[in-house]
Design goal:
alpha+beta; tt1808, chain A; two-stranded antiparallel ribbon
């Protein structure tokens, strides 16, 4: 299966959980809690309020060599958004890709997704843990703050 087929399949619309494709075209499902959705919205809202020179994106599908990965939240500059806005899945990652942790996420899985986003030209990857604490990474190492959003909160309160 490819991402276009997933998007067009009538039985896969309005699912109550997040799905992605692995490198073999198989659907991977991840249930999310209410707090997960709240953190997604809070991060996206803050991004949109802090910068007007790009677009915040929710559940952003990104084509990687490891399958289609879906960043919970992303931010793309105007230039990058113009490049990807009509695509079914992003051929190039938005500059910032954010993963909100769910109970089933493993460190290995999150590290692999981070590397896939960087290989697809993300400039930063952020993690939001189940308590709302944010971790920031660029392609070289962890960062104490975001370079793209230097004033971004390091903790999201619900």
């Amino acid at each position: 299966m490819n991402w276009q087929e997933v998007c067009d399949h009538p039985n896969l619309r309005n699912l109550p959980f997040k799905i992605e494709l692995n490198e073999y075209g198989k659907i991977v499902m991840a249930p999310v809690r209410v707090s997960h959705s709240a953190y997604q919205l809070a991060v996206g809202h803050l991004m949109e309020s802090m910068r007007s020179d790009g677009k915040g994106l929710a559940a952003c599908a990104i084509h990687t060599h490891g399958g289609t990965k879906v960043a919970d939240v992303a931010w793309a500059s105007r230039e990058r958004f113009e490049q990807i806005k009509h695509e079914v899945e992003c051929s190039v990652a938005p500059e910032v890709c954010v993963e909100v942790f769910s109970p089933g996420n493993t460190d290995k899985e999150m590290h692999e997704k981070r590397e896939l986003y960087f290989e697809t030209d993300a400039e930063e990857v952020w993690y939001c843990d189940e308590d709302g604490r944010l971790s920031f990474f660029d392609v070289e190492s962890p960062r104490s703050t975001s370079r793209i959003f230097p004033e971004f909160h390091q903790n999201i309160e619900l």
